Each structure stands twice: as C-alpha cells, then as structure tokens.
C-alpha cells in the first residue's frame, strides 16, 4: 500500500497517538484512585488531622510555657527587691533596738531609714497580686479560691509566730506593755483586726493593710456591667487616701486612719505597674529611666532624713522611689540565657519569715550575748553585726524548716479539694 494511502495515514496517526493515549490513561489512573486506594487515604486522613491538632496543641503549650517562663523571670527580679526590703527592715530594727539598750549608733545610724522596706513591700504586693490575677478580673468563680490562697498565705505562718509570743507574755509578765495578756487584745491580734496601738506581734501592723488590700482587690473578680463604677471607686479610694497625707490628726476615727491610709497609694501604684506591663506599655527604655530616677530619689529621701530632717509624707518620700524601682525590675529586658541568682531569690522567698521573726530574734540574741558579756569582750560593732546576721539566719531557718513545708502541704490540700469539687460538679469527670 502506498505511503500516502488513507490506511497508512491512519496507522501513523494511531502510532503517534498511542503514547499520548497511554499517558493520559496513566494520569487518569493516578487521578482516580482505586477502591483500595480510597480506603487507604480515608484511613490516613484522621491521623493527618490528629497530627495537625497535636502540632497546634504543642505550639500553644510552647507559648504558654514561654509566657510562664517570662513571668517567672520578671517575678524573680521582684523577689530580689522583696528580699532587699526584708533586710532593710531588719537593719532598721537592729539599729533602733540596740541603740536603746547599748546607746550605740550602729553604722552611725545609717540604716534608720531602712523602714522604707515596708513601703517597698506594699508596692510589690500590689504588683504581684494584680499581675498574677490580671486575667481573673470579672471571673466570679475564682473569687473563693483567691481569698483562700491569700488568707492561707498570711494566717498560718503568722499564727505559728504569734503563739510563742503570747505564751512568753504570760510566762514573763514584766515583758511588754501589759495589754498583751488581755483576751480582747489577743483576739484582735489573732485575727489581725486593727486597733489603736500596735498588735502583740509588733511587726504585724503591716498585715492589717495587706489584708485590706486583698479584700478590696477581690471585688474586681465580681462581674460588673459598668466597669467604670469599679474604676471610679478605686480612684475615689485613692484620692481619699492621698488627701489623708495632709491631715495632721487622722485618729478621729480609728478605721478612717486604716481604711484611708496613705499606704493604700503604694498598693495602687503596684497595681498600676502590673496593668502597664500586661498591656505592654513599659519598654526597656522606660525601665532604664525608672531605675536611674528611682535610685536618685531613694538617696535623696535618705539624705533628707539623715541630714535635713524635712517633713515629707512617707508615701511620697519612699512610695515614689519604691514605685520606680519595682517598675524598673518588672520591665527590665529579659535574656533567655540569664538565670536567677539563687541567694537573692531565696531571700525573696524567705522574706515573710524574715519579716515576722527578725525582731524576736534580735531581742533573744541580745539577751544571750549580754548574759555572756560578749558586748564588752568583743565590742558593740561585732556583736550588733552578729545580732543582725543571726536574725537573718533565724528567719531563713524558719522559712526552710517551717514556712516552706507548711505552705507546700497547704497548696497540695487546696489543689486536692479543688479537684474533688470539680469532680463532684462534673459527673463526666468520674468516668
């Protein structure tokens, strides 16, 4: 047959189209899976979805862990300030107590202004409570657990220090001012109810203000359709507290001096720092400026009390430097490689125990050293320094041996009760 015949043309056409037709068939076979392939793909689909879910969950977990790590680093720096505050108060009480008994000016009374550690404590308390509970605003269900945690943080350890003090007042009637053995005074000191004079455990007056702040802060957990009302109430409370700084006699009503104390401004200042930090309004540059200005104002207030003796309201003289130092510590730039200083972090953790027991330890050590005639033999400077160091060590031992184990046990018990309560509320959890 001729090459140009129709038959040869058809054969050539079929040969030229054979490969494309076979390729198209293969592509169709690939694009249209068989029954077994469809079942395999369907079997793999859930596992792929689960893998994506696991990846998303892992990413969320990493974000949460990173946030917790960043929060811990910030709170570590705040813990350093808390330890510093406790040591400053201790040095003040060493200076005052042994100056009265020995007529000796320890370090030329340079630590008399260390009482500002209390003002620093109040700013720190406001910051930590607001920073850690910022996401709880308006969540009424968390109010009960908040109060339980706050009260268990204050009372059990405080009672363990108060009990031997009460017993000692009965065993040695000549000790104290006499009111310490009255039942009404014991009850008021036991529950930290404010009174016209210092409580039986002298340093516990600061806990009056702590508890007031804890109670009022809990109001933020209550849902309110008009949040401006709560903001207005807080501003009004702060304004009355600020105004009381300039009233000479605030004792016309005991509770007015307590409810509208200028110390309330220091708690509010700490809350303000926490809100700014949570909203990312504090930059590293602001931290640098706050640190520099805080140090300058701190030494200015110290110099005023040491040399000039000008009357400046305490909430201004020491509250403002405390505010700036806490702001600097909270907003200081983080470093992933930085690790907390264990000693300073430990002093911060032990600050509550140090604060509660240091004055008792100073009195006890003075009595022991005086009976052994060590002040005359070794000199006042050596033994007063030994009293300060011994009181600090005593507070740390009380923390490690008593406070830390008790608080750990209480936390486990509270967590177990919470889990049990959730299980009883949600029967599905029991399955």
TrEMBL record:
Composition bias of kind Polar residues appears in: 31-47
The GO molecular function terms of this record are:
acyltransferase activity, transferring groups other than amino-acyl groups
Give the location in the cell.
Answer: Membrane
Residue stretches making up the Acyltransferase domain: 76-399
User: Per its UniProt entry, which superkingdom is the organism in?
Assistant: Bacteria
Region Disordered, as annotated, extends over: 20-65
Q: Look up the record and report any one GO term of the cellular component aspect.
A: membrane
Q: Which GO terms describe its biological process?
A: polysaccharide biosynthetic process
Residue spans crossing the bilayer: 80-98, 110-134, 155-175, 200-222, 229-247, 259-277, 286-303, 315-332, 344-366, 378-402
**InterPro entries, alphabetized:** Acyl_transf_3_dom (IPR002656), Acyltransferase_3 (IPR050879)
For this UniProt record, give its keywords in alphabetical order, as a comma-separated list. Acyltransferase, Membrane, Transferase, Transmembrane, Transmembrane helix
What coarse category fits the chief subcellular location reported for this protein? membrane
Q: Does Transferase show up as a keyword for this record? A: yes
The answer to whether the entry has keyword Transmembrane is: yes
List compositional bias (Low complexity) regions by residue number. Answer: 49-59
Task: Please report which protein family the annotation says this sequence is part of.
Answer: Belongs to the acyltransferase 3 family.
Question: Cross-referenced PANTHER family, in alphabetical order?
Answer: ACETYLTRANSFERASE (PTHR23028), BLR2367 PROTEIN (PTHR23028:SF131)
Q: What's the protein called, per UniProt?
A: Acyltransferase
